[in-house]
């Protein structure tokens, strides 16, 4: 189903600002929507595009006009999506993939949950050892689409998700059209890391900062969407820190997150036991996972080390762990303290750098697990 202003969790101030710009016809030709993760940036961008394209809007989309029927399925011919895609084997710069090659997958994930993360998109693409990008050929596709007349007789909207993933050649080719787009054309850029966008693109956009979702709005959404009691919703909202992605993670530890938790617990246990044989088996298991999942595992391990360190302060408001994670951490947290936290984090960070540099994964993880023995014992 589509994404409209009424579907956004909180963010009343931002929505009011954008709605007013559309109603008063003072919308900038290029908008950069940014802010913390999990705050609904993409959902807001899609809702704004839908509001602009609706043929009978009154504070929100009408939901029944011909445009809304198409927008509800993300098939409106004047709404174009651009997002990072994986490169197909043997493709060249002339045959590099474009977003339309994966539009079916995009519509599926967007229809299911407009608050999905980059990691969710990687899983949807079934990416292993490559980093999805927005390639130069995409810019030619955009220019071609914008050179044609609006099929619905109104606005044309281009939503670019994660423009920081654009190749420099792609960014450079889009500079002119973003600065001076055709009449009734809107660019909406949705960025997690705006500092990584080339400055010439940044200077051509109007920045819209979206804050974290308020605790009260998350509580209300959890009760409405998942039927949580007020007390349960309050606990989850307190732990997620204004991040809806984390709120949903708290409710259900996904299959992949459950795997990461299991691997983290195994690593800490074999390090404490100094079990070299099991360390070798652990390293081989992780080495077989593929580079992107290895990087996500190391991210997860670093988060768990931070959470366990904070857990020692006995302040539940500072912890953001699922129940399964807390069950392990109750006994493990005393092993993470001021004497070893920096050393453990350095080992995990160094392993992550080596994985990004394509160092042999078995060597990286076995060496890291051996070094972990020293830090876990250093209490």
Write a structural description:
By secondary structure, this protein is of the alpha/beta class. It has helices at 12-23, 41-53, 66-71, 103-112, 118-125, 136-147, 168-179, 199-202, 215-226, 230-240, 244-251, 255-273, 276-287, 291-311, 323-332, 341-356, 361-377; strands at residues 30-34, 79-82, 156-161, 185-190, 206-209. The chain has three domains: 5-209, Rossmann fold, CATH 3.40.50; 213-252; 253-377, Up-down Bundle (Four Helix Bundle (Hemerythrin (Met), subunit A)). The chain has a five-stranded parallel beta sheet with strand order 2-3-4-1-5, with helices on both faces. Strand 3, helix 7 and strand 4 (185-190) form a beta-alpha-beta unit. Helix 1 (12-23) runs parallel beside helix 2 (41-53), helix 10 (230-240) packs across helix 11 (244-251) and helix 14 (291-311) packs antiparallel against helix 16 (341-356). The termini are far apart. The model has no long low-confidence stretch (mean pLDDT 88).
Could you name the key traits of this structure?
alpha/beta, 5-stranded parallel beta sheet, 379 residues, Four Helix Bundle (Hemerythrin (Met), subunit A), Rossmann fold
């Amino acid at each position: 189903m589509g994404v409209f202003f009424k579907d956004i969790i909180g963010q009343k101030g931002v929505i009011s600002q954008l709605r007013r710009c559309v109603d008063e016809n003072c919308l900038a030709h290029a908008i950069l929507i940014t802010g913390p993760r999990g705050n609904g940036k993409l959902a807001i961008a899609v809702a704004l595009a839908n509001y602009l394209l609706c043929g009978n809007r009154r504070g929100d989309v009408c939901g029944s006009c011909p445009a809304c029927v198409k927008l509800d399925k993300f098939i409106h011919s004047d709404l174009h999506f651009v997002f990072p895609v994986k490169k197909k084997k043997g493709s060249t710069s002339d045959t590099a993939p474009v977003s339309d090659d994966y539009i079916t997958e995009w519509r599926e994930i967007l229809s299911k949950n407009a608050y999905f993360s980059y990691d969710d998109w990687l899983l949807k693409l079934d990416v292993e050892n490559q980093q999805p990008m927005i390639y130069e050929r995409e810019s030619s596709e955009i220019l071609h689409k914008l050179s044609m007349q609006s099929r619905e007789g109104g606005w044309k909207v281009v939503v670019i998700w994660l423009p920081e993933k654009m190749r420099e050649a792609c960014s450079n080719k889009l500079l002119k059209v973003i600065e001076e787009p055709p009449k009734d054309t809107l660019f909406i850029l949705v960025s997690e890391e705006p500092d990584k966008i080339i400055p010439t693109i940044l200077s051509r956009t109007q920045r819209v900062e979206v804050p974290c979702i308020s605790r009260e709005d998350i509580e209300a959404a959890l009760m409405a969407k998942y039927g949580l009691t007020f007390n349960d919703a309050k606990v989850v909202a307190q732990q997620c820190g204004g991040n809806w992605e984390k709120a949903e993670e708290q409710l259900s530890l996904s299959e992949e997150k459950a795997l990461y938790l299991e691997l983290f617990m195994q690593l800490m246990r074999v390090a404490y036991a100094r079990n070299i044989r099991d360390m070798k088996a652990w390293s081989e298991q992780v080495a077989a996972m593929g580079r992107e999942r290895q990087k996500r595992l190391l991210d997860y391990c670093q988060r768990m080390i931070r959470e366990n360190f904070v857990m020692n302060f006995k302040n539940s408001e500072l912890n953001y762990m699922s129940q399964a994670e807390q069950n392990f951490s109750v006994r493990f947290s005393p092993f993470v303290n001021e004497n070893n936290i920096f050393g453990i984090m350095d080992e995990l960070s160094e392993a992550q750098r080596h994985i990004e540099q394509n160092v042999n994964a078995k060597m990286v993880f076995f060496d890291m697990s051996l070094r972990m023995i020293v830090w876990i014992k250093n209490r």
